[in-house]
Amino acid sequence: xxxxxxxxxxxxxxxxxxxxxxxxxxxxxxxxxxxxxxxxxxxxxxxxxxxxxxxxxxxxxxxxxxxxxxxxxxxxxxxxxxxxxxxxxxxxxxxxxxxxxxxxxxxxxxxxxxxxxxxxxxxxxxxxxxxxxxxxxxxxxxxxxxxxxxxxxxxxxxxxxxxxxxxxxxxxxxxxxxxxxxxxxxxxxxxxxxxxx
Length: 197
What we know:
Blueprint: H1 3-9, H2 11-24, H3 32-46, E1 49-56, E2 64-72, H4 73-79, H5 82-85, H6 87-96, E3 99-105, E4 114-116, H7 134-146, H8 150-176, H9 179-188
Antiparallel strand pairs: 1-2, 2-3, 3-4
Helix pairs in contact: 1-2, 4-6
């Protein structure tokens, strides 16, 4: 009998077969396409180059997803509209090509944060600030660096992305282990079942 007949006529046997499918049906790296989609979306929307991705899941405290990578800090500032609020700092980090390196995980204790270094190098007044004396420029940059918790802002942004990744992985897992996916797999593979009377 086929899977639909099994479900209708022998629901207990169907449940056992589904449990076997859940236990052994995902013995491949089912998350690869989710990883690829996440990397592509981050590159396209945020100019964020994602490297390693990891997760644990899905129903225990502490489960979550994380990733590492890098993006230009000026891009992060633009995304969050900080380029408008802190134009001197934006010009400063754009000239330095400063990067922010996320090592972000969702779910509490796993958050490691983002590395942001804004004070390593000196720049000179330019753009709309070109006529500003160097001392005043340095003071303005220092004030704008101190105006926000930049690592905290970056960490929140990247942890939100890690939470989105985790939700996508969880949703994919729930679908792949669902009765619907089990039935589709059995139909696709033309599986037949024999039930002892």
